[in-house]
Amino acid sequence: MTYLTRLLSAAAVAMLTALPASAQYFSADQVVEVSLMPGYRLDGDRHMAAIRIRLAPGWKTYWRAPGDGGVPTVLRLTQADGVSGMAIHWPRPRVFFTNGLRAIGYDGDVILPVEFALDADGTAQIAGRLDLGVCQDVCMPISVDLAGALPDVQTRDGAIAAALSDRPYTAEEAGAGAVTCAIEPIADGLRVTVRAQVPDTGNNEALVVEHRDPMIWVSEATAERQGGWITGVADVIPADHGPFAMNRGDLRITVIGSRMAIELSRCTG
């Protein structure tokens, strides 16, 4: 086996679409296999591991911001011996439509590189849970328990390195220009209008706005392109559904199309 531990359990199946009487029902292990790839050391205090998700033909899973038609993929650590921090390096997703709703994610196999900050030399030990959704004609929420060691080895894993290279471009790499975020209060939060000078990213182009705080909900942005500029409007709603002070630096903006994705790390007023 190429993974350390695989404990797969399906949560209650949520039927997000109406099913015909002849619909086929699936169990989690028929449609998805999730494994922890132990990875390699980048230097003395960083380690690059990954999570491999293998999907049955025709099934999809989702990005960190999945759109109205998807389920977010979330990794939570329950044990972190020798580990002080974690970051997922998301490969470039694609935009697709399910029952008229836009979703952002992956089909086929996907590798999610996970970088760990280490606070000690030698082998580190982790355990955690990956929550994700998998969809075809029906959608299932899945919880996967993963555990294993992060060995002190320097040999790079080619599959993880390839997933790292398949990331969204930075603004500088893509030749993007100015990005502005106009903010106005609404009854239950704030409305953000993003205007960005970015090259055309391809078909099914989407502009995604995220907030650093996962407890703050951001609506799916409506987007319109005119030449070299794309404009998107999204509502940012806090838990108490009221106006609040927001730092533009807390926003992450990504433009995703069929040819490439571009991550815009900052915007001005």
TrEMBL record:
| Alphabetical UniProt keywords | Signal
| Pfam (any one) | DsbD_N
Origin: domain of life: Bacteria
The Thiol:disulfide interchange protein DsbD N-terminal domain extends over 42-146
Recorded hits in InterPro entries, A to Z, give: DsbDN
Signal peptide bounds? 1-23
Q: What is this protein called?
A: Thiol:disulfide interchange protein DsbD N-terminal domain-containing protein
Source organism per UniProt: Gymnodinialimonas phycosphaerae
